[in-house]
Amino acid sequence: MIELTSRKDLERLRRLALASQGLLQASPFGSGLAGARSAVAHLGYVQIDTISVVERAHHHVLHSRVPKFEPSMINKLLQDGDVFEYWSHAAAFLPMDDFRFSLPYKQALKSGQTHWYKDPDKKLMAELLARVASDGPLRSRDIEAKSSNNAAGWWDWKPAKKALEQLYMQGDLMVCDREGFQKVYDLTERVLPSYVNTTFPNLEEFGDHLIDQQLRCHGLASLKGLTYLRRNTGLREVVKNLVDERLAQGLLEQIKISSGEVFVIEPDALERRLPRLNNRLLILSPFDNSVIQRDRLKSLFQYDYQIECYVPEPKRQYGYFCLPLLYRGEFIGRMDCKAHRKERRLEIKSLYLEKQSFDNDMVISAFVEAIKLFSQFQQCDSVTLASVEPEHLRQKLQIKLNEIMG
Fold it and tell me: Is residue 77 within 8 Å of 95, Cβ to Cβ?
């Protein structure tokens, strides 16, 4: 095991992690639709989230990495069969090439080995499946009718929505489109492209897939991170055995950092040519792939981050929906903001700049440039600033914002 104790070693490790995530390069995956397609394939998933105080997470993650990305492009990828919706550690868009690795969970749900909903209504599920087969794609709103209507072919919404979701989760249905944030379901055989590999993976194949995916998109991984939020004990054991095999064969090596965390890494990873750090500041989503493993984030970057929208308001430290701020290889703060779309105004409720090791003028300039792009992404023409910590930076920041936002 290699112990990395110097600041220089840690900085290089961070650069490897961020470069693997596509966060150091200006255009790591290309631009526009093709760039979005490549980004999802590289990252392995993009998490879907319903919170919309700013652009939703699945749009935000791609905006951070793909120049000229537009929110409509994800739906285009879905319609074209480049991605599919399913459960990763959460609801996500996944590369269609990885479809076969969704099959074990679907089978476990269908067989009753595990549950999405307890005691699913199989009669109602059969009726809904028959309706989709005969009438075509179905939206959840298509079954939103009161049971008291007693109209043929309509169902009480709550049980029907559960039945529809169960059919989706166990693989009988797929999401073929979205209308706004409404899912449109169709039979899997009508959605799935003919070229897709549907061979059921064994545990070793699944384990190898997870290891390769995590090393590709993170550069390094802890044993816990390789199976992040996956509860399959057998899969975890297989992943551990596969890691041990690769270590014994010299295909992986272990590194230990000053926090005590142990990661696995490919032997030449730290010697690879990595992008240089630049003065671009990135405003990331709370559900960004680079920050979602909070323990890893704290260990590697000494950045203690929690999304507080699920925390009761009196107990919040930073705000409802704080966004991580990344600058020159470090997470330097966070920003709680909200897009007021009717007013076309981005409100910065609070900005926290926590790292004082950088030149304040450079950080402020980088932040304001980032805000300009971010507000355009939110379709906002103006930015208002309420609170800044440290307070002495507020006036300078306000002046810069006024200059750049016109």
Answer: no
SS (H, E, C) the chain: CEEECCHHHHHHHHHHHHHHCCCCCCCECECHHHHHHHHHHHHCCEECCCCCCCCCHHHHHHHCCCCCCCCHHHHHHHHCCCEEEEECCCEEEEEHHHHHHHHHHHHHHHHCCCCCCCCCCHHHHHHHHHHHHHHCCEEHHHHCECHHHCCCCCCEHHHHHHHHHHHHHCCCEEEEEEECCEEEEEEHHHHCCCCCCCCCCCHHHHHHHHHHHHHHHHCCECHHHHCCCCCCHHHHHHHHHHHHHHHHCCCCEEEEECCCCEEEECCCHHHCCCCCCCCCEEECCCCCCCCCCHHHHHHHHCCCCCCCCCCCHHHCCCCCCEEEEEECCEEEEEEEEEEECCCCEEEEEEEEECCCCCCHHHHHHHHHHHHHHHHHHCCCCEEEECCEECHHHHHHHHHHHHHHHC
Asked whether residue 155 carries a pLDDT value surpassing 70, the answer given is no
Q: Provide the token pair at 387.
A: 């609170």
C-alpha dihedral sign at 186, 188, 190, 194: positive
pLDDT tens-digit map of 47-83: 998 888 999 999 999 999 999 999 999 999 999 999 9
- CA–CA dist 85, 79 (Å, integer): 11
Whether 44 shows a pLDDT value over 90: the answer reads yes
Residues 312-337, mean pLDDT to the nearest whole number: 94
Domains and CATH numbers, the chain: 102-191 (1.10.10.10), 306-405 (3.40.630)
- 267 has pLDDT over 70: yes
Please enumerate in sequence order all residues whose Cβ is within 8 A of that of 337, keeping only pairs 6 or more positions apart, or say none: 53, 54, 321, 323, 346, 347, 348, 349
